[in-house]
Automatic annotation (TrEMBL):
PANTHER family from the UniProt entry: GERMIN-LIKE PROTEIN SUBFAMILY 3 MEMBER 3
Binding-site residues, oxalate: H109, E113
Gene Ontology, cellular component aspect: apoplast
Top-level lineage group: Eukaryota
Name of the molecule in the record: Germin-like protein
Organism (species): Chenopodium quinoa (Quinoa)
Places the protein is found: Secreted, Extracellular space, Apoplast
A Pfam family reported for this protein in Swiss-Prot or TrEMBL: Cupin_1
Occurrences of domain Cupin type-1 (ranges): 59-204
Keyword Protein biosynthesis: no
Length: 217
């Protein structure tokens, strides 16, 4: 069962507050008009005359989520593209489902992130720029913060599926997995080998593992 108070608190803390001293508030909201191009600050606003209550509601976290990728996870994102009401608010969310033994591999964002575990048992951790790892077993109701740009990860170490929700203080936080960046893109095996000290043969094996097998991660 989703701990609504915990998730609300997470969003309240992560949201970038508007104040008279920091911003000139001239409109109440800016529902994204997805029919127009997106700029660095987000989308243009939908015509207020066409805004409805449904624009402020996101239902994408409902129901059971299928897990089919190589990492054993499913990440359902609520950002300014999937939930246009977030446009201009400087925050986003995601639902994280992890199969038994599933992982969210080491990755980073442009933003900070806070996780609230709802069901299951996971190990969550951070690796800072001194290569020091901070990790802990989280139980339902526990939270952990991942500072912006630092590598972090989650592993389901329980005997059941794990469910967590995360909040991020950016509408477009980015999501870069270290392993797939190196071995699932267009980086030539020779270069990947040179910068990782992994043999070209092993790099090609990793290319085969990750390429085409990372959907929904």
């Amino acid at each position: 069962m989703m701990n609504g108070l915990a998730v609300f608190s997470m969003l309240f803390l992560l949201a970038k507050p508007f104040s008279a001293g920091s911003a000139n508030i001239e409109i109440d909201y800016c529902i994204a008009d997805l029919s127009l191009p997106r700029g660095p600050q987000g989308y243009a606003c939908k015509d207020p005359a066409k805004v409805t209550t449904d624009d402020f509601v996101f239902t994408g976290f409902r129901g059971e989520k299928s897990i089919t990728n190589i990492f054993g996870n499913n990440v359902t994102r609520a950002n300014h593209t999937t939930f246009p009401a977030l446009n201009g608010l400087g925050l986003s969310m995601a639902r994280l489902d992890l199969a038994v033994g599933g992982v969210v591999p080491a990755h980073s964002h442009r933003t900070s992130e806070m996780i609230v575990l709802i069901n299951g048992t996971i190990i969550a951790g951070i690796i800072d720029t001194n290569n020091t790892a901070y990790y802990k077993v989280l139980l339902p109701g526990d939270s952990m913060i991942f500072p912006q740009t630092l590598l972090h990860f989650q592993i389901n170490v329980g005997k059941t599926r794990a469910l967590a929700f995360v909040g991020l203080n950016g509408a477009n936080p980015g999501f870069q997995i270290a392993s797939t960046a190196l071995f699932a893109g267009n980086l030539p095996p020779e270069i990947a080998s040179a910068i990782t000290l992994i043999s070209p043969k092993e790099v090609r094996r990793l290319n085969q593992i990750f390429s085409g097998n990372i959907a929904a991660s």
